[in-house]
Fold DEAD/DEAH box helicase.
Amino acid sequence: MKAALSDRGKRPVVIMVPASLHEKWPRDFKVFVDRAIQRSDDKALRAKPVASALEFFRLIDSEARNRPQIIFLKHGAFHVQNIDQWVRLALIKRAISGIHLGEKRNALPRFAADLLRTKSSYNDPELFAKLLRIPNREWRLVINEHYRARPDLQLHDTPIPEAIQKVLDSSDIDVAELRDCLRELPARESAFINERLERARRAINDALRTMWPSTLAKARFRSPLLIMDEAHHLKNPATRLASLFVTDEAREDAGTITGALEGSFERMMFLTATPFQLGHHELLNVIDRFRGVAWKTMPHYTKEQFEAELEALGKTLDCAQHRAAELDKRWASLREGDLVDKSGREVSIDDWWQSAAADSKDRPERIQMVMRSFHQAQAAMKEAEAPLRKWVVRHLRDPMLPGTNVPRRSRHSGRALSLSLEGDGGLPVGDEALLPFLLAARAQAVVVREGIKAGRATFAEGLASSYEAFLETRRNGSSHEDEEQELKAALPGQLVNRYVEKLTTALPDEAAYAQHPKIAPLIARVLDLWRHREKVVVFCHYRETGRAIVRHLSAALERQLWSDAAQRFGLEQEAVRKAVADFGARFDTNGGMRQPLHEELARRLAPYVELSSEERNHIQDVVRRFVRTPLFVARHFDIDARSGESTLREAFGTRDLSGISLGEKIDSFLKFIARRCSHPERKDYLEALSRMQPGIRGETLRENDDDLSQMKGISVMPNIRLANGLVKQETRQRLMLAFNTPFFPEVLVASSVLAEGVDLHLSCRHVIHHDLSWNPSTLEQRTGRVDRIGAIAETVRKPIEVFLPYVGGTQDEKQFRVVMDRERWFQVLMGADYRTDEHFTEKAAERIPLPVAAARALAFDLSVKSACDARKHEESPIGARQTT
């Protein structure tokens, strides 16, 4: 913010963000300006999202007083495909300059809208004729004058940025082919006009590809600061994004411009949540992009110094990773029988490590080699830590909730998902499901014997997830997944095929699919959380598993709802259904509950003068729509009560497992909507809630329920929603907003599409990883959706409950063992190869897990709070530490 406000030349700060976050950054920025900035002068800080390089150049060309101080620029903005109709028209004008076209020149404006694909907006031949005659720099005035009565078609910036104009005025583009195509255009409509137009469009695109590198090379500007979000995308220097910052002369002949943004930024800061998922060479590649900084603005630090330091850092990291890899290899030699004390008694891995680390000289030579490798790796990692601290700052959240001794997270593995089972280990497989899992284990053993070429046994992973997912892996290969996988499913041999076919026939009847060893305890756990009025997000890998959970959970939740209600009110189920519906109707226009609810909400809304009358009415409508539903009435209200006021007070006083009452939840929601949301964000939240259907959905679904259009013919409870890759981005955004309120949905079943760039933390502190992952960062990203600053866990001072269920003795347990071990090594072996083939994972599952103490001793400490020599803390002249 300081860089944006204090720059004397009013040059904008540029924040480059991936497409998936291009809306989130500006939205969060608006909240920051409204809620965090105190000085009135600073509130004038303006930002603008920009999707293409053309928009960016136009902003740079505009007058300083009209430019925003911050520009949110998409990563892919500099791709040639983002060129608009005006530049294409200017290219046509350049192509026809100086050639004889006869009457075709006059006919060209008639085809221009077709040629440029602007018939739905700019389609007036008279305008195009005028633009082709006048200088490009006059276009904006002419276009705006032409559309005086159409403000929506008027332009705010010059249509042809100066960098483009320089190329058009030069000889750097080849328009010969485009000229030939334009000569072929008829003077009037003809039978082959569409084919000729298409050829001309292709010629325009070819000319643009030739012209674009020269354009980027001529587009010179200066900014005080670049912030690159998701900077791990810079790990490959050959990519279009990474090549923008550093000139690579070896690639110039390929027709690809490099270094287009080199020297444009006086300071650079890169952001990434996963620096150590990168290989150390990839991390060096990311840091190397700092080479594109404006060195002339840095009198006390030179490019040559930077390159020398980076080379030295590379050698140090090479040594550290060599030692870490050697330790990894030595560690793999350890076996369960090695975990004994000096008397030969079996001990835990942590106790064994404490003893072995203190004194290993009496241990077998193999273990002494492990300990020597550990100490060598530890020394090498510490040696690399000091120079790395100059370029990388890593923030690790406190393991305790703020101001408490309560752990921030509480992890529950394996059978801990079950409400009835005790002890350690995985979820058991009952007798009725034993045969399918035994057959899967046999088939999997055959795949392992096939070696590396066998690939993944997806049938075993699918079976551990749900019966439905197993059947889908048999039918459609990998189309059932939302996550990208490096390896395809194992190609079945005849023996594997026989086992899998037997497995398919051994599955229980479809009516018993809900009794799957992992599905059944999941449903029971989610129901228990729901009965305690807690929200929960369930992550799945398989789309079919997500649909199965929604289906089975809806059926179980509906049964539980009416069973509890019948018991609570002492009525038969049919009678209680009618009584609950009748009570809900009392919230309608003439009902006895409408006025008490209105008055109660009006009292709670009174302190929030920020809300308009229209917004207050909208909130009243939203709350009323949800509290009148059977799901609210049956759980919160006394349907026999005669006094609306008293039963409302009682309902608002009911508390959840976190100790928060319904009334307190509504108060928090009102405070959040009124005082933490900007006006547009407030509108988005209320719109999202208004579009949530509070009633049970069946086959007839509205357009805004595209998340459940996958559940054809299935009645789905309104508090359960599904978010996978088949759901529109707009719908996913709406579900996310609604989930962050006290209202529906209460259960969100999600795939990897909600694992990044999404906030689900305001009303939820329970996450279940129904399907695990081979990659520990995937699990961390998922959990991070509910573990964020301002999470409900911080408010109630209770941990974020993380469930990692797995079925014991199956592929599920193997995946759990592998990913937990990889989690320990995550900060030690940078860029570890997370292979998923059976040959590799079978061996990985047999490894002795790295003790927590050992992992901590090896990990880089790159936090700003570390006690380190002051000289090692010296700020980097251009790196992340400078601007942090």
User: Anything to note?
Assistant: Residues 431-516 form one domain. The chain has a mean pLDDT of 86.
